[in-house]
Specification:
By secondary structure, the chain is mainly α. It is built from two helices and no strands. The chain is globular, with a radius of gyration of 9 Å.
Length: about 40
């Protein structure tokens, strides 16, 4: 399925992983820290 819009990264990662059936959405994130992911996108 299409990747979620970058705007969804504003949600806490744990909440995102629990509510999203595709945990690999962050597989290509440049950093494990959500704040860095938001700024990078």
């Amino acid at each position: 399925r299409p990747r979620p819009p970058a705007r969804r990264l504003l949600l806490p990662r744990c909440r995102h992983l629990k509510s999203d059936p595709d945990p690999l959405a962050f597989a290509d994130a440049p950093s494990p820290r959500p704040a860095d992911v938001i700024w990078s996108s």
